[in-house]
Amino acid sequence: MGAKASFEPAPLDRSSTFYVAGHRGLVGSAIWRKLEDEGFTDLVGRTSGELDLKDRTDVFDFFASAKPRYVVLAAAKVGGILANNTYPVDFLSDNLRIQVNVLDAAREHGVERLLFLGSSCIYPKFAEQPIREESLLTGHLEPTNDAYAIAKIAGIMHVQAIRRQYSLPWISAMPTNLYGPGDNFSPEGSHVLPALIRRFDEAAATKAGSVTNWGTGSPRREFLHVDDMASACLHLLEHYDGPDQVNVGTGSDVTIKELASIVADAVGYDGQIRWDASKPDGTPQKLLDVSRLAAAGWSARISLIDGVKSTVEWYRANSGHLRA
C-alpha cells in the first residue's frame, strides 16, 4: 500500500482528491487558495463541527469515504504565549490526538503524499541563529509553549517513523512566524504582527497622539506571508523528499521597532511610537536557516512591506467578522 522507497517527487495530479486538514485556518485556507489557483479540482475540507479530528473513529470513517490521495495536515490547536502557558494539557493532548488520528488513518487508507505542518517553536530556546534543522532535540525548549512544541515534535517523529516502517514519501515543514489574510487579530489571542496592525489601525482611526508597545523594540523576528507559505508547501510536495523537516521562511529578519514603523506606514498612522522597556522583550532573535528550502528550489516572493499593506487591506475589509 502506498508509494515505494524509490519515490521521485513530481507534479501532483490536479484531478486527484486532496484533503486539507484545517482548511479554515490561517495556513490551511491559504493552501486551499493556492491549490485552487493551481487547478486542483477535487479539494476536500471539513470544519471542526463537521469532523472532530480528535475522534479516532470519525477520522477513520472520513478517510474511508473520502479516499484522499494527498493530504496536508494543517489542523492544530494554536494560541499565543498566554494560552499556551495557561492550558498546556489542552495543547499537548488535543494536538497529539489530531496528529495520531490523521496520520494513522492516512496510512491505513493509502495516502500517497502527505505534508505535516509544524512550528519553529520545536527548536531549543537557545538554538544557534539562524536555526538549522539539525538543531532539533539538541537543547531545552521555551517553557511557555513546550507542551505544544512536544506535540509538534511527536508529529515530525511520526512522519519519520512512517517513512522508515512503511516507505511512504511523507514530509514535514516548519514555518517561521506567519501572517496574512485569515489571521487572528483579537486583543488577547493574536501574535505580534496582527496585534500591531490592530493597535495602529485603531490609533489612526482615533487620531491618537502616541502608541505604546511592549519592550524595547530590539528583538529580531522573521515574518513570512501565508500565501508564500502555501506556495512553499506545494513546491515541497512536488520537489522534495526526505526524512528531515524543512524550515520555511524568508531567511531575513527585522527588529520589532522596524516592524512597528512598517505597520504604522501601512495604516497611515503618523503619531509617536513609544516603547515600555519595563515589559519583557522575549528571545533576542528567532531566525530560520532556509538553505535546505533554497536547495529544493524555492524562495519567498512577497516582501514584508507589500505583505503588511495587503494584510491591512484585508483586515479593514473583514473587520466586521474577524475570528476571535
Describe the structure in your own words:
- The chain is α/β, with parallel strands linked by helices.
- The protein has a domain at 18-182 and 223-251 and 289-301: NAD(P)-binding Rossmann-like Domain (Rossmann fold, 3-Layer(aba) Sandwich).
- The chain has 10 helices and 13 strands.
- It has helices spanning 26-37, 56-66, 81-86, 88-108, 146-166, 192-206, 226-239, 256-267, 291-295, 304-317, and strands spanning 18-21, 43-44, 70-73, 113-117, 171-175, 177-179, 210-214, 220-221, 223-225, 246-248, 254-255, 272-276, 285-286.
- Strand 1, helix 1 and strand 2 form a beta-alpha-beta unit.
- The longest helix has 21 residues, at 88-108.
- It is globular.
SSE arrangement:
Elements: E1 18-21, H1 26-37, E2 43-44, H2 56-66, E3 70-73, H3 81-86, H4 88-108, E4 113-117, H5 146-166, E5 171-175, E6 177-179, H6 192-206, E7 210-214, E8 220-221, E9 223-225, H7 226-239, E10 246-248, E11 254-255, H8 256-267, E12 272-276, E13 285-286, H9 291-295, H10 304-317
Parallel strand pairs: 1-2, 1-3, 3-4, 4-5, 5-10, 6-9, 7-12, 8-13
Antiparallel strand pairs: 8-11
Helix pairs in contact: 1-7, 2-4, 4-5, 6-8, 8-10
